[in-house]
Amino acid sequence: MLVAHLVAAVERLAPTALAEDWDNVGLLVGRHNQPLRGVMVALDLRDEVLGEAREHGCDAVLTHHPPIFPSLSAVTDHGAAGELVLRAAEDRVAIIAAHTNLDAARGGLNDVMCEVLGIGPAAPLRPDAGDPDAGLGRIGAVRPCNLSALVARVAAGFGGEVTYAGDPWTRLERVACCTGSGASMIEDARAGGADAFVTSDLKYHDADRAEGLPLVHLPHARAERVALKRWTKQLERALAPEGVEVRFAEADTDPWQNA
Fold it and tell me: What is the β-pairing status of strands 245-248 and 38-42?
């Protein structure tokens, strides 16, 4: 199997056409004709992730967050971001990014989040123009419960404490969610008739901007790491006929730590 075949498999699972205009997805480092024995899936490209890839004989790393973004203007050993990309190229480890396209895709991270939270059937909060069944965020029915029960479900499904804004006894029948930074979709959740919205990277005044819509906030990396690990099973099934091993990185690349 070649890197080109991995790129094609990822394209089928998370079409690049679904990515936001500002995003940078697809093959970012490496040659399409490079032989492939194993794939490492990780939230971010870090030293620990590259080390795991080498240790387990993985010739490619599929990251959710693109290591090459507009802020990276040179690939040299001057600066941590450039150093990582340069090292991957020198080690002949291909780097592929699936970011907002994987969030938006049918069966992607937002749908995985719905599975964890018991939301379904779910529809996109912002449907894609070319594929109305795909898009950013999700909204759907839940078994009737109160906000306190939803908070407990989020904490159990994604591990660890979460914060929330709203009356804990508020009755919920319809819940919206968004992996990653979903503050910009508060209005979409309200317009869609959501009784609560679950997402990451909310700020203090987002609770006021929600105008009474209960918000459940969980750490960005934790939400995406749990969803990405579950999604990795889909990639395993897609590559199984080729005999290519798919591993999820053990390294926790979240820069934020609890005191």
Answer: parallel
